[in-house]
Amino acid sequence: MEIGFLGLGIMGKAMAMNLLKHGFKVTVWNRTLSKCDELVEHGASMGETPAQVIKKCKYTIAMLSDPCAALSVVFDDKDGVLEQICEGKGYIDMSTVDAETSLKINQAITGKGGRFVEGPVSGSKKPAEDGQLIILAAGDKSLFDETVPAFDVLGKKSFYLGQVGNGAKMKLVVNMVMGSMMNAFSEGLVLADKSGLSSDTLLDILDLGAMTNPMFKGKGPSMNKSSYPPAFPLKHQQKDMRLALALGDENAVSMPVAAAANEAFKKARSMGLGDLDFSAVIEAVKFSRE
Amino acid sequence: MEIGFLGLGIMGKAMAMNLLKHGFKVTVWNRTLSKCDELVEHGASMGETPAQVIKKCKYTIAMLSDPCAALSVVFDDKDGVLEQICEGKGYIDMSTVDAETSLKINQAITGKGGRFVEGPVSGSKKPAEDGQLIILAAGDKSLFDETVPAFDVLGKKSFYLGQVGNGAKMKLVVNMVMGSMMNAFSEGLVLADKSGLSSDTLLDILDLGAMTNPMFKGKGPSMNKSSYPPAFPLKHQQKDMRLALALGDENAVSMPVAAAANEAFKKARSMGLGDLDFSAVIEAVKFSRE
Amino acid sequence: MEIGFLGLGIMGKAMAMNLLKHGFKVTVWNRTLSKCDELVEHGASMGETPAQVIKKCKYTIAMLSDPCAALSVVFDDKDGVLEQICEGKGYIDMSTVDAETSLKINQAITGKGGRFVEGPVSGSKKPAEDGQLIILAAGDKSLFDETVPAFDVLGKKSFYLGQVGNGAKMKLVVNMVMGSMMNAFSEGLVLADKSGLSSDTLLDILDLGAMTNPMFKGKGPSMNKSSYPPAFPLKHQQKDMRLALALGDENAVSMPVAAAANEAFKKARSMGLGDLDFSAVIEAVKFSRE
Amino acid sequence: MEIGFLGLGIMGKAMAMNLLKHGFKVTVWNRTLSKCDELVEHGASMGETPAQVIKKCKYTIAMLSDPCAALSVVFDDKDGVLEQICEGKGYIDMSTVDAETSLKINQAITGKGGRFVEGPVSGSKKPAEDGQLIILAAGDKSLFDETVPAFDVLGKKSFYLGQVGNGAKMKLVVNMVMGSMMNAFSEGLVLADKSGLSSDTLLDILDLGAMTNPMFKGKGPSMNKSSYPPAFPLKHQQKDMRLALALGDENAVSMPVAAAANEAFKKARSMGLGDLDFSAVIEAVKFSRE
């Protein structure tokens, strides 16, 4: 199976490499073409432009840094995906973009007769390297079905969620639960500490009970040391909380706990913590002038 | 090692049985004495009153239904623990009581020369039977150390948390985190559903990620079926949220997410859901007249 | 002083009439031209198109129903404001629009050499008729200064708030305070009632103290009768809360009370109360299944 | 009409003086007796103990500093109110106490055959001097009716609210609305400021609209100067929010806005602002590290 691959950032490179390792023929492209070299050494072909890649491959996956890059790769004059996309071809955008961007790309691709799937992922560098991503796919069902062999290599599980936009929405829901949980956890750690209890012991207790989860285990010890190396920056978490609340607004869902959590993240941003890990929200709970 | 055991409710009976099975000599008492029969068949002795049990045993554990029962067993004229407690003896109350009750009992016991440990547990019937409780102990350190062999049989882990009251406080902190997490989870499930996503698929996605935990796995499927068999009644969860917020009040800890979660539990109570499982708070999130 | 006036809805008609009464020469236009008749009877001239009105008058005020209408009056091919606006002319848009719409109109007008002021108002039908509006103006200062005689007729006070967009923003801030106050009031009324106190007596007590204000006095009695005739629809109030929270998001201002109030309005919307007065949010506080 | 008066603090002295001025015969007592001198100069008699005052007067009003003082005046051995209270006599406690204290005093007084009214007031020094207090009375209706002439002198309005405890509860409801309003106001002022608008102009705009009220007018200007001279200390306001939320808890009323406001006051307390005026909560909204 031949696959085009656009975008060789941290995530994209690891994903394309996995495809190669599992016997896929891969044609790669990256805005800075030199980033293609390593992949080519491992057997990949290289395209000069997105349009070239599309022309060559029946299926093309994109993994770009943000909505702006995702749009530009598709719509660029002469070089863009739209120049060559046509009936019979499939385009799978696995970048993390908002539902609106996804819908715009979908409309353009299908307008040319192509098929489109959005497939944002849950998981970062390590799961990408290990082929352990969770893929939240939506859009053209036949394309999804045909792409499953690639998804099986890239992730531990891929979900088909229906119409385009649902992948982006599901990611917001998941991140909202995560943001509220992080606040619940932070308040607990601070309450323990200020009440004369050990917040390290609280970690041990939580770890033994029904709430034990990898996030508490992974982040708790560094939070107790006021260390927040950015795995998922707080400002991005806050943005996702805001977008999830907006999704609730659209559908008339009242979510007071998420709203309170969002305001705590905003307070943390106002404290200059936006670029730290989102677990730094505990600093907003902790803060007191005394 | 000889141990007295006061209170043979669901929890107490399972715990006393575990002690017997592991070779402890156990003398039991229960307000309704007939409940002692099964234990006696398995080799336990029986005391006629709490005072008799205390007289006979160096160490006595109590597992009573509520603060009122815990106080009455200690303070009852003629028959109570206080009648016989004295230097050299230890009293371990594992009932779930507030810090104030615990302090009152502690004062009375130590006033007579006895030693006291509070040891509320995390976990319910099944963990009690399996000896898998988590024990949040506080009070006399020497008594705690001497009691460790019994704790090892009753629980998978026992924590020594310092002065009397800390066991009760730690339990509040843990339950507060649990209550806020349950709200985060509920809001996510409802948001998914109202946004046209499958809340069952959300469960699958959460289960694969960094937030996966036994509580979401255990309660999610029934919540999606609007079924809330009471493992931990909502009204008790709300009471613990309130007490945790009061603890925060005492120590000037602002906890806006827990406060929002508490109001959601109160809304659920006002909807008549207080006796259902605390996961029924999702009904307060779901509710709409349309 | 000659003034053009575009838009003769409930508000616009009352405002144009006031200008006439105070000796201004007024040229009116309305999409449905027949609505101009009454004004013409009182001495107004009529324009066939917005462009005609602009051509005739040095100053033109617009009072349109929503951002869409505001944009179309300016940008319409052939007939729109842009066809005739030019150096020396001033355009004052008093419609309630978002900052973005305002900035777009400003750019177009000034691009043609014209001057622009946004001037959203606080107050509805009655204050419009009585010339008692509050005008939140921003934009070209010289135009504002020249327009003051007209503002003095239309409102009891006009504020100059600086650059275009500030009028819209100030209105959001004011409406946010209003929405949170309405929730505070609603919670008080329900708490009184459920605690066995009279919510009518609470109104009397509030009326005598430092919190007495026309909104509580005007809406309290009907709220106590569960009557919510729509003066300001709940869905619009909720939209303004959302936009105010977004403004806070932009500027990293954490506003937990407004966020909680917004969620209460959303709950009320989910109960089907969006078209009632925003005071109907009390129904979301009141609601219980029992 | 002869009235006893116990407690000559700032409030009590002003109130007793008003009674004298309006022709009442007043017998005063104060723990520090020398504080009676000024009143005696104006024609009052003096009692050596509360018991003496009760013995002499058919009606006795108390205005004491806190629940502890209120209880001690009633229950003191030999000298307390209980020594002389009896059928035919009335005791009116206008101190600010919790419902529980009020109920305790009521039980003791009525147990001796006396009649009791609680009458906490809304308003501080100035209204006390001007006879412009608002009186929230509850308890024995016949005593209330007989005391109206005195209430008419002390306040601009007195309310009869039913059974003992209702006065205290109504005061909590009023103060809760006040605390939430203060948060709404604070968030608005900060949002204006951080959005590049003038918070002084916001005060002017609010003052002209439907939300205008003496509290915003009185406290706004000093809040904009970060000045918080304590008229009503923040820690007391926060205590009342907490007690109002507890009242809501008892009656299953969910109040998310008051809960968010309470957490903001707690944050302010943790910042060391408890002894400043409750308007200092704006500092918790404002706070950011940058």
From TrEMBL, chains A, B, C, D:
It catalyses: 4-hydroxybutanoate + NADP(+) = succinate semialdehyde + NADPH + H(+); glycolate + NADP(+) = glyoxylate + NADPH + H(+). The keyword DNA damage does not apply. Residues 165-284 form the 3-hydroxyisobutyrate dehydrogenase-like NAD-binding domain. Pfam families: NAD_binding_11, NAD_binding_2. GO terms for molecular function: glyoxylate reductase (NADPH) activity; NAD binding; NADP binding. The active site is at 171. Residues 2-162 form the 6-phosphogluconate dehydrogenase NADP-binding domain. The keyword NADP applies. GO terms for cellular component: cytosol. Keywords: NAD, NADP, Oxidoreductase, Stress response. Belongs to the HIBADH-related family. NP60 subfamily. Catalyzes the NADPH-dependent reduction of glyoxylate to glycolate as well as succinic semialdehyde (SSA) to gamma-hydroxybutyrate in vitro. May function in redox homeostasis and play a role in oxidative stress tolerance by detoxifying glyoxylate and SSA generated in glycolate metabolism and GABA metabolism, respectively. This is Glyoxylate/succinic semialdehyde reductase 1.
